[in-house]
Amino acid sequence: MNESEVFAKNWSSIVLWGGLIFLFGYWLFGFDGITFSDDVYYLLAGRDFWEGKMGTNDYHFSSRWGAYIPAGLIVHWFGMNPHWASAISLIAYLITFLLLFRLQSEKEGKIVFSIWMLTQVYLLHFLTKVYPDALLVLCVAFVVFASTFRFQKPFLAALGIIIGFFVGMVTKETMILLGTFPILILYFDWRSKNLKISFLGNLIALGTAVIILYLVYFWWKFGDPFYRVSSINAGHYVSEFTYADKGWKSMLRRVSYLPITTFVERIYWPWIVFAIPGIWNALKTKKPIDLEFSLAFLSLLIGFWFMSSTLELYNPIYLNPRHLIVIVPILAFLIGSGWKAWKTNPKMKWTIMSLMILGVAISVFQNDWKTAAFQGVLAFLLFLQKSNWQLAAFSFVLISPAILAIQYQKELKDYPNLINELNRELLYSENQSSILVNNFIYFSREVLIPDQDLIDKKLIPVESADSLIQTAQEEIRVFIYHYYQHAYPQEEEDIVPLESLLEPSYQLQEGRVNGQVEVNVYRKRN
User: Which residues are listed as membrane-spanning (predicted)?
Assistant: First the structure.
């Protein structure tokens, strides 16, 4: 056989392996460091769990066992290496891709699904992070996957759905966004007079058993079966990311147009728009598999739009784009399923075109010209005539930002240089003075630097500068990682007045800037 015949015979395996290799390669070369926030807790909690020092407590993150126990096992085996620990996220993505690829029936659908799943920038960004949202990608996909064989294997389907929900819920509570999905599929089965009683019975029995065991655990552990609910309520306190405390206008904005602008700003809009033909056809024809994925997306969308972050009062959850990565594989599957529909339906094509132009307009209004251009090019590609050229063009336009994002994030974060400079300051033999560092660097110290003896003696958060100055040390070093301007702009309040705080008692002797890191040495005035 010639090369074209070999490809025609093995195209499915080639596309599958290409996707798996791409994910592995992106994980291997796309690591840009930790995020200095939630992932630090999960890494430390995972390490402490396997060392026997971690237990469930009143902090709501401590009950997210799925978020830190698997990653903690890698830390336990290989030491505190955030990149290696994120292999859990890689495994979750690989399994998700395998499951959904298997469900796609047509050649073009498999290719289109692969392209759209493997190129969403936010999804790929958390591939190299220890975040529960990456594991929820698998949990959501697994629930939908299990639901597709409920007529053939009702017990296994019910078991798979319950396992997916349980693992998701003990990983992160946003799994509840999919909570209406079982209700929707049961309703559609009932309407079509195709409801499988054995599936319904198994689903109710297994779900009830798991819920009772879960409540009994907290009753035994804390004396309150609803302790978990209380800890979640306590963990979602009033902050800059809440709405209920800011008046009805804030709430109205949140449940009206803010989700749409978030979809556009965070590059989810094209995935939603191009999935519309697949969703429309699935709801119209009730086609198996496509219907389940459409209902899953609608469930997630309703949950994201209206779900409350606490049960004490209605406060819509913060529109964190990280939460939305769970919808990407679902949308990619629907894009693959509906790819032919818009190419043969002019009305559908113009609907997609109109919505993409709306996305462009929103981006222009936000002065986000890169996103506007990206969406504009995708809209233009709708009208390419040759199918193969069109698919190749879509592939190029989608994959280019994903690849370019690697270098962009690395340059923005300058993470290796941060580690080198921090080690240089800590290990410098003549430097015995305290070092003022960004608050988030101090919080992440146990992950960034393995030698805790050095850290405990030297590193001081900038918010404690006043207390350090009062000790009247001969020398104070200030280590500022300017990435804070991008990720933690609120630290400006502590960093800007730092020089004026030091000036009365200390004089700047020397300083240097290396990439994102600035180090200044202050000595006590005579």
Answer: 12-29, 83-101, 122-149, 155-188, 200-220, 267-283, 295-314, 320-339, 351-369, 389-408
Of 178, 179, 134, 162, give the one whose Cα is nearest residue 35.
Answer: 134
Q: Which of 511, 486, 514 is nearest to 32 (CA)?
A: 486
Number of helices (H), then strands (E), in the chain? 29, 5
The answer to whether 177 and 138 are in contact (CB under 8 A) is: no
Q: Are 138 and 23 in contact (CB under 8 A)?
A: no
Helix-, strand-, coil-residue percentages of the chain, each rounded to 5: 70, 5, 25
What is the Cα–Cα distance from 478 to 499, expressed in whole angstroms?
10
What single DSSP character describes residue 60?
A: G
Could you give the dihedral angle defined by the CA atoms of residues 207, 211, 216 and 221, in that order, rounded to the nearest 10 degrees?
A: 130
Distance in angstroms (rounded) separating the CA atoms of residues 208 and 15: 41
Q: What is the DSSP string of 375-397?
A: HHHHHHHTT-S-HHHHHHHHHHH
Q: Which whole-number Å values give the CA distances from 141 to 95, 161, 436, 477, 521, in the listed order?
A: 9, 10, 45, 49, 52
What token pair was written down for 131? 């975040």
Q: How far is CA 85 from CA 12, 74, 77, in A?
A: 31, 5, 10
Report the C-alpha gap between 344 and 340 in whole angstroms. 6
Q: How far is CA 406 from CA 32, 153, 171, 403, in A?
A: 8, 43, 27, 6
Output the six-digit token pair for 396.
Answer: 């190029």
Local structure of 509: helix, strand or coil: strand
Q: Which helix (H) or strand (E) holds 182?
A: helix 181-191
Helix (H, G, I), strand (E, B) or coil at 307: coil
Q: CA 79 to CA 89: how far, in whole Å?
A: 17
Contact call for residues 454 and 493 (beta carbons, < 8 A) = no
Question: Which among 392, 406, 394, 445 has a CA at the least distance from the CA of 423?
Answer: 445
Alpha-carbon dihedral sign for residues 378, 380, 383, 384? negative
The residue whose two tokens read 């993150």 is 61
The whole-number pLDDT of residue 223 equals 87
Task: Give me 220's structure tokens.
Answer: 């035994």
Contact 522, 475 (CB under 8 A): yes
Residues 6 or more apart from 207 whose CB is under 8 A from it? 162, 165
Query: For residues 407 and 124, what is the distance between their CA atoms, to the nearest angstrom?
Result: 13
Low pLDDT (below 70) residues in the chain = 1-9, 235-238, 429-431, 451-457
Where do we find the tokens 């993409």?
356
Residue 217 Cα distances to 70, 197, 349, angstroms: 21, 30, 53
Report H helices in 223-289: 227-235, 248-255, 258-265, 269-285
pLDDT attached to residue 26: 97
Cβ count near 415 (within 10 Å): 20
Provide the pLDDT for residue 12.
84
